[in-house]
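Researcher: Good morning. I'm working through a list of sequences from a screen, and I'd like to move beyond sequence-only analysis. For each chain I'm collecting a predicted structure so we can compare shapes side by side. This is the next one on the list. No need for commentary yet; just the structure.
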Amino acid sequence: MSTSAGVTAPAAATSPPGASRSDARALFAVCAATLLVLMNYTAPVAVLPQTARSLGAGLTTQTWLINAITLGLAATLLVAGSLGDDFGRRRIFRTGLALLAVGTVGSAVAPNAATFVAARIVQGAASAAILAAGLGLLGHAFHTAQGRAHATARWASMLGAGIAVGPLASAALTSAAGWRWFYVILAALAVLLAAFGGRLLTESRAARVAHIDVPGVLTLGAGLALLLVAVTAGRTGWLRPAVLIPLVLGVLLLATFVAVQARGRAPMLDLALFRRPDFRIATLGAFFTGLAALGPSTVLPTLVQQLVGISALGTAGLAFVWAGASFVVSNQMRHLGTRTAPARQLALGFLLTAVGYLAMLGYADAHSWVRTIPGLLISGAGSGLLNAALARLAVTTVPTDRVAMGSGANNTARYVGSALGVAGAVTLASSLLPAGQASGFSAHGADAVLLIGSLVAVLGAATALIRRRAAAPVPAAG
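Model: Good morning. Structure tokens for this chain:
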């Protein structure tokens, strides 16, 4: 098989030397599904103005058009990973694909913004099942350090590929036939992959009695949902009851979740894992990746479109530059992953993200989208390093029978950070308005997004390097 880089699912099926045919099939199916998930995740970015006009969505609601899927992801990733380990990773993976088809059909026929947002939340829950169970399937299929580095780098490259292709496909279909057609086509692809791709996978689950941690599921899901609702609503003021009430309730529910996990016999999240430096680094690294890299970069194309004035296809092209660089770097880390300590790889990724953001300062005042290109390439390369390191850490810092839970925990931290990053970026970009401008985004706000994003990225790099003792080895299952 070819090992050349590409942005299609067949390229993702290339397996490390010595991998069995079943392992290669698993890698293909998981990478293809991950590509669909990320294409769907970023689909509204390039066509947000057109989608918002069609659905009658104001500025605050537009934040939800982007962030609703992140809410579904963050609230259910850990749950999906735990269910995959206990009830079968292949079963949860295929269920996620079927649910993704249902959610995308809902987006395609949505008559208003509320229905579209609800459908995107369903897509987020479906995506959580695919990501958590999919990475868990790879962790089970590939056992050697080289094999896992190769497989997780391929998986991570699909994150970049999906972000690159999704906005382009959405913008092209919007220009040709309307934004709804993207969701129609994606639903059909999800059905096909659920029907046929699932046959490429073998079932795997933990060797323990299946158990649903109902108190954990309810407190975590509701707590994260309320927290993200509060943060998104905070754009128009933090001292309003509509913000304070869900914020306080969300924090209380998350504290309850921690207490439930500490006392439970079969907890959804083993809190003892946080005693391991590598697991802490993985979790904090994922959170800062969402907050500093994924959140601001998700909003950036929309800011350029509205402040500089480029077409939907041009906006998608900018997203492609960033995500394409991420794809190439993640894909190449399959050769280099075992040679670089994950913490150092994370630190370098964060620093490149910060440098890329600083390189883009002033693009809105200069009214030049060209000025964003070097920064997009640099920060995209940083994102590629982050994705590859986090994917490897997600499956190597937990016991082998809990790899889907490890993936769920890691991606939960990532998408909670992303939701906070998106909400914060929109708030900053729309709060520093010049005199006489009542709403929208401003050049000063756009620069503030880049400055704060770079500072958070530097903080992420420092966090990755703070490691006072060696990581304890992870015990094998059984």
